[in-house]
Amino acid sequence: MTISLETLLAVSAIKDLHVQFCRANDRLDEELMRRCFHDDAVIQLHEPLNVDSFIALGRTILAQYTVTWHNIGNQTVQVQGDFAWAEHYTISSHRIPADAEGAERDFVANGRYVDLVEKRNGTWKFKHRQMVIDFTRTDPVAPAPDGIGVG
Predict the structure, then answer these.
(1) Could you read off the pLDDT tens digit of each residue along the chain, which spans 151 residues?
(2) Cα 47 to Cα 127: distance, rounded to the nearest angstrom
(3) For residue 9, how many other CB atoms are within 10 A of its CB?
(4) d(Cα 63, Cα 71) in Å, to the nearest integer?
(5) What are the residues facing 131 on neighbouring strands?
(6) What is the C-alpha to C-alpha distance for residues 52 and 33, in angstroms, rounded to an integer?
(7) CA-atom Rg of the chain in angstroms
């Protein structure tokens, strides 16, 4: 099976789009996050959200963690013209500070982003994105070994 250079470039751009989305989450970069989506995009979480509502929700949720870290796994992209279907496996860790519910801990979500991506004016962006959580866990945070710093 022969894959065109145009398709390979599209696949690369769409995979990079997901990388940028994860980076925007982890760096709390709302402008980068906004650039990942078309203005009329729908993000399906517990309910359908537009881009502004999604960013506002992220601002609230991410503020409760001291750090988040998204690790990207398998990525499947199927391109058809100016549209693509994509699925990106992601393991995301969220450091929760010590609070009334317990000691410092990590909330880890294992899931997939299922996307409809569209190319407009030469740029691939998410048109519809759904986060599917496959399973989660919460892990205690062990002290770092002597001589190993964080940051």
Answers:
(1) 789 999 999 999 999 999 999 999 999 999 999 999 999 999 999 899 999 999 999 999 999 999 999 999 999 999 999 999 999 999 999 999 999 999 999 999 999 999 999 999 999 999 999 999 999 999 999 887 776 665 5
(2) 16
(3) 12
(4) 20
(5) 113
(6) 10
(7) 17
- Taking the C-alpha atoms of residue 12 and residue 6, their distance in angstroms, rounded to an integer, is 10
The structure tokens listed for 64 are 């409760």
In degrees, rounded to 5, the angle at the alpha carbon of residue 14 between the alpha carbons of residues 12 and 16 is 70
Contact 130, 144 (CB under 8 A): no
Helix, strand, coil percentages, rounded to 5, for the chain: 25, 50, 25
Residue found under tokens 């205690």: 140
Of 134, 84, 75, residue with least CA distance to 108: 134
| Cα gap 106→117, rounded to integer Å | 31
How far apart (Å, rounded) are the C-alpha atoms in residues 35 and 65?
23
What's the predicted TM-score (pTM) here?
Answer: 0.91
Helix (H) or strand (E) holding 74: strand 67-80
Pairing of strands 123-140, 37-44: parallel
